[in-house]
Structures are given as C-alpha cells and as structure tokens.
Amino acid sequence: MAQGRIEPADRLRLIRRRALLMMLLGLAISVVVFITAPADRGNPLGYDPMDSKAYMRQLELYGGQENVLSVQLQQWFLGLWHGRTLAYTLLFIFLVASTLYWLVAGRMELLRRVEEAAKAAPAAGN
Question: Rounded to 5 degrees, what are φ and ψ at 38?
C-alpha cells in the first residue's frame, strides 16, 4: 500500500461519515436558528392585505387568477426564510444535500471499484 492511499473500504466509510457529519451539522444549525428565532411580529402594517377580499379582488381584476396565485406563492416562499420556518427550511436543505452526497459519491466509488476490477482482470489472465 502506498503512503497516503486510502483503501476502498475506507473510502465508503469516509463517504458515510461525511454525509452523517453534514446531517448533524444541519441539525445543529437548525436547532440554533429555531431557538434564537424571534417571535413572529406580524405584518408591520397592522394587517395583512392578503386577508382582505377587496385586495384579492383587485389582484384578480388586474392580473387574473394567475396573479393571485403568483402573489400567494411569492409570500409563501419569502416566509420560508424568516423565523422558525427558516430552521425547518435549513434542516430540509441539509438533509437533501447530505442524502444526495451519500448516494452520488457512494455510487461513484462503487463504479470506480468496478472499473479497477475490470482493468485488473485482463492483467491477471495473462
């Protein structure tokens, strides 16, 4: 074994550990954000225009039903990045990223092993 070369079994173990570390880091960050998130202050105007039937009617009148849906989607998306919902959003992002890393990196390592075995097989037959 050459100095600095990682064994194949150790590579998969390292990939799993990195994915677990990403998950735990995401959980820790999410917990910190959840605990330190300020209470919902509500709308600074004192009311939410989206609760008004007149405002909703104006939106629909000027832009149609698509306008109403796009405004609702925009408000939902912007709400993901504030307060306690930010903690849930970060947790979801970290879980998806670590799972994708684990799946893709693990699959690439297995494919690399198959390629090495295929290269070694003809050499062993000679």
Answer: -70, 160
**Whole-number Å distance between alpha carbons of 11 and 102:** 12
Contact 12, 77 (CB under 8 A): no
pLDDT digits (tens, 9 = 90+) for 81-111: 988 999 999 999 999 999 999 999 999 988 8
* Cα–chain center distance at 73: 19
**Between residues 28 and 51, which one has the greater pLDDT?**
28
Report which residue type is found at 96.
V
Alpha helices in the chain (DSSP H): 8-36, 53-79, 83-125
Asked if 94 contacts 25 with a C-beta cutoff of 8 angstroms, the reply is yes
